[in-house]
Design goal:
Elements (H helix, E strand, L loop, with lengths): L2 E5 L4 H14 L4 E6 L3 H9 L3 E3 L16 H19 L3 E4 L6 H6 L5 E5 L6 H6 L5 E4 L2 H4 L5 E3 L26 E5 L6 H17 L1 E5 L13 E4 L5 H7 L2 E4 L3 H9 L4 E3 L9 H11 L4 E2 L7 H13 L1 H8 L7 H13 L7
Parallel strand pairs: 1-2, 1-4, 2-3, 4-5, 5-6, 6-7, 8-9, 8-11, 9-10, 11-12, 12-13
């Protein structure tokens, strides 16, 4: 069986698209994951995916002076990745971007590389990986046009998401009100959590609320119509349960909401960010698919008003979402198969 190395980690946005592709390809190929010691390691262990740990180094936007040593550390990371690739001997490397994927891409020799960029504009790792990549696969057409080898393909999505079922009772909700889900991202967002707690008395007049706070982050105490959870593994049922969702504007989160036609309010992460979430949200806002609430404008009152307005006008937004194709899973799998078929077996 031919082998594919999937690389990427650090955040759910770099891990879960790889997992989505592995789920589709694991019956045809030996799928192996290469990454650092971030969440990717535990996620792969839980799913029985072979995992190779390599050294990684992160570019810090919040402390630029710490980046002086990055080029020197990256050399050691690439050496670590070369050793892993020599042992695995893959026929293809699929990079989901981010600092955890870059060493494997740079270490590739005589191994075809496909890179994928989920955001509206390319991140640093994707820019550095472009020359090593046969194609830079992009979730946004505007991004693909920035690369000579760019292809607009959409986002890899877990196909299980389409098979969710509403489970209000599992969240302790009685089903008498529409459900608002508030999600701050895989690690939680203190600003969104705090604002949600402040807005809760008003929110509960209209909605039952499921509040995904993030690991070790706090919401309000559990009460009638309010269910706080640290992390939700069963996203397919959460999406099917909620009538409106408030979320960060990570590209994968927005793609999931649009593919599943969940009325969405996006609050982009802007601080300590290159601005990618704001770009993602503005793109879909301009298409009329979502509502955008800037964190600088977020108050308890604005959160309540925006959530209520979205619910009131949800059919308009759902109609617009229906005309936007975001799920690129099938096309990406086809490109992976074709790329492997075109290559003779090579050694790392």
């Amino acid at each position: 069986m031919q082998t594919i190395v999937f690389a990427g980690g650090g955040t759910a946005g770099h891990v879960m698209p790889n997992i989505a592709l592995i789920n589709e390809l694991k019956s045809e190929y030996n799928c192996v994951y290469v990454g650092g010691d971030g969440m990717e390691k535990n996620i792969c262990r839980e799913r029985g995916i072979p995992f190779y740990s390599i050294k990684t180094v992160k570019f810090r936007r919040d402390a630029m002076f710490k980046n002086i040593a990055v080029p020197f550390k990256l050399t050691s990371c690439v050496k670590s990745a070369k050793a892993a690739l020599a042992e695995i001997n893959p026929q293809l490397i699929f990079s989901k971007g981010g600092y955890a994927a870059l060493p494997a891409v740079l270490a590739a020799k005589n191994i075809p590389v496909l890179s994928h960029e989920s955001d509206f504009s390319a991140g640093l790792a994707t820019k550095l990986a472009k020359r090593k990549s046969k194609y830079v696969l992009c979730a946004f057409e505007d991004c693909a046009q920035k690369f000579k080898n760019g292809l607009y393909v959409g986002t890899p999505l877990n196909q299980e998401l389409y098979r969710g079922a509403s489970k209000k009772a599992a969240y302790g909700l009685n089903g008498n009100k529409p459900v608002l889900a508030v999600i701050g991202g895989s690690s939680g967002a203190t600003a969104i959590n705090d604002c949600t707690v402040a807005a809760l008395p008003e929110l509960l007049k209209t909605f039952d609320v499921i509040h995904v706070t993030g690991k070790n982050k706090s919401g309000a105490p559990k009460q009638t119509g309010y269910c706080p959870v640290e992390f939700e593994n069963n996203m397919k049922d959460l999406y099917a349960t909620c009538d409106v969702i408030i979320t960060r504007a990570g590209a994968n989160a927005l793609a999931e909401c649009i593919a599943l036609k969940v009325p969405t309010v996006a609050i982009p992460l802007e601080k300590a960010s290159r601005g990618d979430q704001l770009q993602n949200a503005e793109h879909f806002k301009n298409k009329g698919a979502i509502k955008l609430l800037r964190e600088a404008d977020m108050t308890a009152d604005s959160l309540v008003a925006t959530a209520r307005d979205m619910y009131k006008n949800k059919f308009k937004y759902v109609s617009t979402m229906s005309g936007i194709a975001v799920d690129g899973t099938a096309r990406i799998c086809k490109i992976i198969r074709e790329t492997i078929a075109q290559q003779p077996t090579q050694n790392a």
